[in-house]
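From: lab user (bench 3)
To: helpdesk
Subject: output format question, protein + glutamine

Hello, I'm new to running complex predictions and I'm not sure whether the block I got back is the full result or only part of it. Here's what I submitted:
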Amino acid sequence: MQTLAFGLPRLGEKRQYKILLEKFWSGKLSEQEFHQGMKELEAERLRTYAEKVDVFPACELSFYDPMLDLSVALGVVPERFHAYKGLSQYFEMARGASALEMTKWFNTNYHYLVPEWGGGEQTPNPALIIEKYRTAREKGYSQALPSLIGPYTFLALSKQEGHPLSPSQMEEAVEKLLPTYKELLRLLINEGAEGFLLHEPAFVLDEPPVPLIGYIYHSLAGFPIYVLTYYEGVDFYPRFVELPVRGVGLDFVSNTSNYQALLQYGFPEDKVLIGGIIDGRNVWRADLKAKLREVESLHKHVKKLWLSPSAPLSFLPLTKDPERHIAAPIWERLSFAKEKLEELHVLIRAIRGESEAQRRVEASALLWEDPAFGIHPPTRERLRALKEEDFQRELPYRERSYHQQKALQLPLFPTTTIGSFPQTEDIRATRKNYKEGKLSPEEYKAYIQEKIAEVIRYQEELDLDVLVHGEFERSDMVEFFAEKLEGFAITRQGWVLSYGSRVYRPPIIYGDVWRPASMTVEEITYAQSLTSKPVKGMLTGPVTILNWSYAPPVKTREEVAYEIALAILDEVRDLEAAGIKVIQIDEPAFREGAPLKKRNWADYFRWAVRAFRLASRAKPFTQIHSHMCYSEFESILQYIWEMDFDVISIEASRSKGTLVEEFKRFPHWDRQVGLGVYDIHSPAIPTREAIEQVIEAARRALPDTLLWVNPDCGLKTRRWEEVRPALKHMVEAAKNIRNRIPSAK
Ligand code: GLN
Ligand code: ZN
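Helpdesk reply: Thanks, we reran it on our side. This is the complete output you should expect:
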């Protein structure tokens, strides 16, 4: 038996990865210094692996994204990048003016670069990958196997003219890809590679084209390949384990179907099973005693067994060492990427009969029900006492909206924004000073109030209809609430890559979640005190808070979602009591939390919808808004409707009319919709005419009384110079349209 680990975070203990990239981009490092720095980081990572596991990947330290590495290596490079060479081409594709599209990697929070077919290929350029493999060999690690995205996953996540490849495009692409892919493997073999780790997470998606997969792997037969799958079970298990490869990896943590299939169909004697038994997605220590039993039961069916994490460790913080500020009972139970390697190490040594390791396995059983570990009896009682009516608003939408309109007196096509206004350098610096204690709480509060007052004045001058306070006190929409709620641990160095060199720190939910004190009332009521127009209370929804945090052990996500929902509900009640009439509860991560397999959707959306409804059970007179951005809504419009808000703002500017088409196909849609008429992810300023066109298109699908006008997301990342003219055009467009409708005057 052996151990294998993969996906050790690229970032490095001191965030060297981010620093190297950003220094290189800003010209502070030469290309040679950059390569040297990356080489050192790779050497450190290889050493970390080698100390703890038997087999591990080489070529893992991508300079931006592994999908991009393969695009360049295989020559899947659209024409518009051909003028660039080497690293400048690589980074032009990653982050240039017409960079490749970026989208979420399976059910993680990481974004990969989408390979683009059909735009004119170029000669394959495997130099970067080969160079990385040489680093591993130079350091003497022959047990490091080149790690690449597998050919099927590469194709399955590719696009041609903005869409996933059609079956015939796929066939064509396979024929182009296979020779270059084989050539890449051959080159690596010449460099000494003894095996390959090919990542094929797309094997776990719904209805994979099994004949095509078989065709691809038969073409690669003869190469020493280990295929890794993760994030879910593989639905074509019997065919999968028969592929002509040396070994296959299966995730035994995220699902039970892989194990059931193994029991039912057995496992071929001549192949290696890479058993993903240590949770690679969450931050909790394993009960190694239980894991040992799992290994024993796997071993009954499998001759050649390797132990591994269930998924790449990429989306975990690197190590818990710097997090000693977290209370001991929690800290002890944490296991980040390096600690997961240690768990594998202890497990394999115990299996090999080392008594010290066996003692550690014996001692690793965990008590999760320890009162020091965040148990809060009143919250548990509240959860137990929940009744069906807690998930229902008192009046149906039609009646609520009548009351709300009477109270708010809004014009047709009311204008508003999504919450945040530009977070300038000045705001960031002030928040940093405050966190470092260089600014007193009073000084910080005064500063925030000044910003709020400015933005209220600005919105009044602009003549928006529903105002916001600007979110200047928030760095991140989830972390802000996590810091104020009980049951969350916040790391200091627990950075995780979200794309390129971008990092964020997911909060860790360890215990029961509850709200010790109000979280937003002070800023919102201050903003409301400055204007007679309604100011929106601004909250992050329970599903998004859960999906962008690490979930606690033992509990179901459903339970945790309800706990968070109750805490948000408490805030809703406090805002109402303070006289706030409009409350927005953002759920941008509502769609992305859905399971990979469609057959599991109904259950997820059932509780996700209920969690939102629980959090938003406001008085009938309070207008509840929600906001979602950049997800595909088509298939989930029914669930969105069931959330039972009064108004929702959804992206519309990029997908132009398509969203509106969706509403046409959904005849019982009766809620107000905020049209995202300003694409905030682009520096372009929309013209008044363009905005009017979006509104006019929407009017063909929905009645005027249901339409709002707003940007498609928060304005946090934009500059004031862009925001001012864009919002001016937006308000003018709404007014122009009102003026054209006699009844609106
Ligand atoms: N209210 C948040 C903001 O405006 C919403 C952000 C989001 O949807 N991602 O920043
Ligand atoms: Zn958004």
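A quick orientation on your result: The first strand starts at residue 2 and ends at 3. Let us know if anything else is unclear.
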